[in-house]
Amino acid sequence: MNVLEEPQLLQALRDVEDPELPISIVDMGLVVDLRTHGQEVDVDVTFTAMGCPGMDMIVDDIRARLLREPGVERVNVEIVWEPVWTKDRLSDDGKAQMREWGISL
User: What is the mean pLDDT of each run of 10 residues along the chain (105 residues)?
Assistant: First the structure.
């Protein structure tokens, strides 16, 4: 049985992109918390707005991506609204990518 490592799983989530901008949900600051329990992964995510049209797609993509990792048998994704998303949650790479797309911060 593989031991799930949170840094490895967080790295895997870099493959999941926001459907509106080609920026990972990690760099967008949408991943609030990630925890492992045996072969189960719990992920708390937030969104830039309550009416975000990509929420279901992102949640499905998170689950699908993590289930491809060795040893992951179950993924629970919870949408949380605390902390509130602000541009301060963007990583430095995320900020640079946004600027490349002409989005001012």
Answer: 78 94 94 95 94 92 97 97 94 92 84
How many Cβ atoms sit within 10 Å of the Cβ of residue 5? 12
In angstroms, how far is the first alpha carbon of the chain from the final one? 44
Which CATH number fits the domain that encloses residue 91? 3.30.300.130
The answer to whether the CB of 94 falls within 8 A of the CB of 28 is yes
DSSP string, 21-88: SS-BHHHHT-EEEEEEETTEEEEEE--SSTT-TTHHHHHHHHHHHHHTSTT--EEEEEE--SSPP-GG
Q: What residue numbers bound the domain in which 71 lies?
A: 6-99
pLDDT of residue 53: 85
Q: What local confidence, expressed as pLDDT, does residue 5 receive?
A: 85
